[in-house]
Amino acid sequence: MSKINTEQAAKPVGAYPHARRVGNLLFLSGIGPRTANTNEIPGLELDHRGNFVSFDFEVQVHSVFNNIKAVLEASGAKWENLVDVTVFLVNMKRDFNAFNRLYAEYFKDAQPCRTTVEVTSLPTEIAIELKCIAVIED
Questions:
Q1: How confident is the model at residue 112 (pLDDT cuts 50, 70, 90)?
Q2: Rounded mean pLDDT, 57-73
Q3: Which residues of 77-114 are buried (b: 16+ CB within 10 A; e: fewer)?
Q4: Would you list the DSSP string of the chain?
Q5: φ, ψ (nearest 5 deg) of residue 35
Q6: pLDDT at 138 over 80
Q7: Largest CA distance in the chain
Q8: Does the pLDDT at position 46 exceed 90?
Q9: Higher pLDDT, 48 or 50
Q10: Which of 3, 18, 21, 35 is the most buried (most CB within 10 A)?
Q11: pLDDT band at 51 (very low <50, low <70, confident <90, very high)
């Protein structure tokens, strides 16, 4: 078993790796949209009291996918190697249709299994997190 971390994706918010390889399977930890270098949340602006000033869910979706791609590449895998994706949304009613549309753009050919659930909250002020499994073809 090997642990994988990369500077190209946002740092985990706890004591866990970005991914772990077991045989030819790659298990990605939950990954959100925070940026790798600044740890900022794209598409979210808060005032000095922590209240929402502006919010763009689609920017967060693109950022999550970029973080997933970075972890896959650091692990020797590709986007097409994803076989299972679990999606956590903090507001299903507001965000599901936009997510579904963007997901279809990213997964035109490679179509892993997918589960989407609504959760009360996620670590930090993010609106989306993905948990993925991929197969690495040697």
A1: very high
A2: 97
A3: bebebbeebbbbbbeeeebeeebeebbeeebeeeebee
A4: -EEE--TTSPPPSSS--SEEEETTEEEEEEE-S--TTT---TTEEE-TTS-EEEE-HHHHHHHHHHHHHHHHHHTT--GGGEEEEEEEES-HHHHHHHHHHHHHHHTSS---EEEEEE-S--STT-SEEEEEEEE---
A5: -80, 150
A6: no
A7: 50
A8: no
A9: 48
A10: 18
A11: confident
- Structural domains of the chain in order of their starting residue, each with its CATH number: 2-135 (3.30.1330.40)
In terms of C-beta density within 10 A (0-12 exposed, 13-18 middle, 19 or more buried), how is residue 39 classed?
exposed
Give the pairing type, strands 82-89 and 113-118: parallel
Spatial contact of 19 and 132, defined as CB atoms under 8 Å apart: no
Amino acid at position 108, single letter: K
Residue 24 in this model has a pLDDT that exceeds 80: yes
Distance CA 128, CA 29 (A): 13
**Is the whole model's pTM more than 0.85, yes or no?**
yes
Cα separation, 30 vs 17, whole angstroms? 10
